[in-house]
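Subgroup meeting minutes
Present: P.N., E.W., G.H.
Scribe: E.W.

1. P.N. recapped why we're keeping a running log of single-chain structure predictions: easier to compare across weeks, and new members can see raw inputs and outputs side by side.
2. G.H. added today's entry (172 aa).
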Amino acid sequence: MPVLETAAPAYRNLTQIRLLREHNPGEALATWNQLRPGSAAITFAELPTGIAVWSQSGGVVKGRMVGESSAKVHASADRFLRLCAAHNSNPIEIAAAGRELYRWLLAPELASFGDGVVSVSADSWLESIPLGALTDDSGQFLARQFAFVEAYGPGGHLPDHERIAATDPAWA
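Output recorded in log:
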């Protein structure tokens, strides 16, 4: 929505203040979700000083900043995508690049989750990272343990009378 895009810098800065200065990951995530609504088990956002990662599990919200710069993570993600796309890439090199991204972006969060579906909401270029193709510290693809599902839109926030049912006509 164009209105939200013009307000995005303000939301990014307020989110960062709540996460880093106020040390309140719950309020930071609530602020971020006002810009990108939806419920997610893991949320990634590129803030002015770096990448923020939130996890929600069992009603507990945790937040952290990635220890590497956005530029370094972005360059690594681009390299990983290029390696995955080239038929002649070295599998060992792909696994190493995937493990690096896993450690930066997901390792602390996934350590507290059991196998299964992980709903993900990601900002900007972070959306393009194929999380299931990343490798954990044992060398296994994350897709063997987790099904990553992109969280779109308002999720369960629609009133019941506004939900679309399977019996509703497509042209209504």
